[in-house]
Task: inverse folding
């Protein structure tokens, strides 16, 4: 009987040891975010521990803030705060209509206006006393595109994480904004199984790399064998994203260029090797920037 108790208790005990040592457990709070154009957005807010960052979470097409459940738990266990948002037209944010009725095209459709949802989230955190330098914005799929476009209106955003971004989702474009995002840290993640999305994410990564100039240690690229969006984040990426939130900038990165012939032929290279764009990426990259 005792051994059975120990067996059942051990996982819970180990989990408890991983939790931050705080006095009283802090639970997430339902909040409402008011946008400039009259949407009342449903969100869940968890304050960060002292000195830790707060992450704005933007979900994918057809999803809601609940799609971040596993990641939210990981953030909380690591001491990070979060603000998980139901984007306009999704979940409990449907007071002015549902996303199924939104125009799928147009530079001023409701999907593009979701950048105002991000601005409402940033305004809420500012009222809560969260410093701009302590905020990261993470989006998955559609949310990644919305997050990327948001830096046009919030260029001071210090950290941007794009999980399965695409060049174009519902006419929300990523590349134009990242071309002018020069000061922040960027994480881009893509699954190799979806070849089109992986290639587009690689091009987006190249654009971010060029935008940061010589300080390329601020661009991080993650990949996985399969899955995309929330599913890829939950299965493969949570530890890496948590680590990135703690230390977003790499201390030293080799130039983004092919190996010297001698090193390539010998199969040896001193230290780590930074993998440059593939030939396919090189072929697409200039046309994107023209």
Result:
């Amino acid at each position: 009987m005792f051994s059975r108790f120990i067996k059942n208790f051990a996982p819970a005990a180990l989990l408890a040891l991983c939790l931050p040592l705080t006095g009283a457990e802090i639970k997430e709070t339902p909040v409402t975010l008011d946008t400039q154009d009259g949407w009342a957005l449903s969100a869940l807010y968890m304050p960060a521990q002292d000195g830790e960052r707060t992450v704005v979470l933007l979900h994918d097409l057809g999803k809601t803030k609940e799609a971040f459940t596993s990641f939210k738990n990981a953030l909380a266990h690591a001491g990070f705060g979060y603000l998980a948002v139901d984007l306009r037209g999704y979940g409990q944010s449907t007071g002015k209509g549902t996303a199924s009725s939104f125009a799928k095209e147009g530079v001023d459709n409701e999907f593009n206006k979701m950048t105002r949802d991000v601005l409402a989230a940033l305004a809420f955190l500012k009222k809560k006393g969260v410093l701009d330098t302590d905020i990261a914005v993470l989006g998955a799929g559609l949310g990644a595109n919305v997050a990327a476009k948001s830096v046009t209106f919030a260029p001071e955003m210090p950290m941007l994480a794009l999980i399965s971004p695409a060049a174009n989702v519902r006419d929300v474009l990523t590349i134009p904004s990242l071309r002018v995002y020069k000061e922040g840290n960027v994480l881009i993640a893509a699954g190799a199984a979806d070849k089109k999305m992986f290639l587009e994410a690689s091009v987006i990564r190249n654009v971010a790399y060029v935008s940061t100039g010589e300080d390329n240690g601020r661009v991080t690229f993650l990949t996985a064998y399969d899955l995309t969006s929330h599913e890829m984040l939950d299965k493969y990426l949570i530890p890496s994203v948590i680590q990135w939130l703690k230390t977003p900038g790499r201390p030293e990165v080799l130039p983004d260029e092919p190996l010297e012939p001698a090193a390539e032929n010998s199969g040896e290279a001193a230290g780590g090797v930074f993998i440059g764009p593939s030939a396919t990426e090189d072929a697409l990259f200039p046309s994107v920037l023209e």
Notes: The longest helix spans residues 229-246.
